[in-house]
Amino acid sequence: xxxxxxxxxxxxxxxxxxxxxxxxxxxxxxxxxxxxxxxxxxxxxxxxxxxxxxxxxxxxxxxxxxxxxxxxxxxxxxxxxxxxxxxxxxxxxxxxxxxxxxxxxxxxxxxxxxxxxxxxxxxxxxxxxxxxxxxxxxxxxxxxxxxxxxxxxxxxxxxxxxxxxxxxxxxxxxxxxxxxxxxxxxxxxxxxxxxxxxxxxxxxxxxxxxxxxxxxxxxxxxxxxxxxxxxxxxxxxxxxxxxxxxxxxxxxxxxxxxxxxxxxxxxxxxxxxxxxxxxxxxxxxxxxxxxxxxxxxxxxxxxxxxxxxxxxxxxxxxxxxxxxxxxxxxxxxxxxxxxxxxxxxxxxxxxxxxxxxxxxxxxxxxxxxxxxxxxxxxxxxxxxxxxxxxxxxxxxxxx
Length: 399
Ligand code: ADP
Ligand code: MG
Hints:
The chain is α/β, with parallel strands linked by helices. Helices cover about 40% and strands about 15% of the residues. The chain has 15 helices and 17 strands. Helix 3 links the parallel strand 5 and strand 6. The longest helix has 16 residues. Adenosine-5'-diphosphate binds next to helix 9, strand 14 and helix 13.
């Protein structure tokens, strides 16, 4: 992997103005922040810079104001939550550049922290407008990016600033890049990938990228149905993208050529209705699904066999649940396989990296999110990385 500068490489920053791009796009309900994970993720970087005497300016986007000021999407709404996590006072600055910002920054003491207004209030942010980038940079000495989850966007504060100020990866960015590098960049072999979730169509590029890189591709979730259909299995009423069976065949062929073993479920959990603990629930071989049944989870025999596959592997990368895990008992396969992966990780025989909105929720549901080597909450950026794409915000940090 190309290298990037970390906080360890910083010069003396006492008295310097450091712009820190964070992800404070926090979920809110009735004017209250409901979840502060993203603030906790950025806290080590912010506090480290503050402790080193920098004047820390936090940059973030919030919602989708589309280049115009909208008080209901002002970052001033999250300042209380940020102060609570940091345990320090944070000054709010209702601008990101210009005279008002300059004056506000002028009154900061060494170690002080300020949160600048929602970068997306200005059209120059999403356009990555050089004049907007220069105006923000004019008030600062250094740039730190700690928002991997925004790194798939080439915006002024996620990409542009890195080109005109000395640029560093924050601690959360560094941890994410190092974990992803271990999982797919330069992994210990054999490598397994678990890809699940609802639809093949949303993960075609992920599957195409993975078949050339992993030794075992475990396909579960709704998308397995399309692969089963491609192999001539009658999947009944299951969620299935019948128009993509030819594409599924191509992926299976590419895997074959690359020496990647594809694992599809051979037993499945089915029911006639999609409801919690439905009366028609049963487990059967994939060839025995009735015309009025749908596949909602991978079956127990397949899960056990998949656990044995993981036991032979050194590295695992996981995106997408194995079944409709929000509805019991269709969480069974996801929970069981996640627990196997977690146990192997704890034993030290597996490096496990997982990501994706529903995947993270499923790992928490299984009670093993903390036992994986790394769980990415980066959503879209994580998926783009799984597709093998270069993320502009990461690329711009490379030296
Ligand atoms: P992630 O957010 O981790 O990338 P996805 O959004 O791709 O994951 O997929 C998650 C969704 O897939 C879940 O809502 C889950 O209920 C659904 N799903 C998984 N298996 C099935 C299935 N067999 N039938 C219908 N939906 C499924
Ligand atoms: Mg999802």
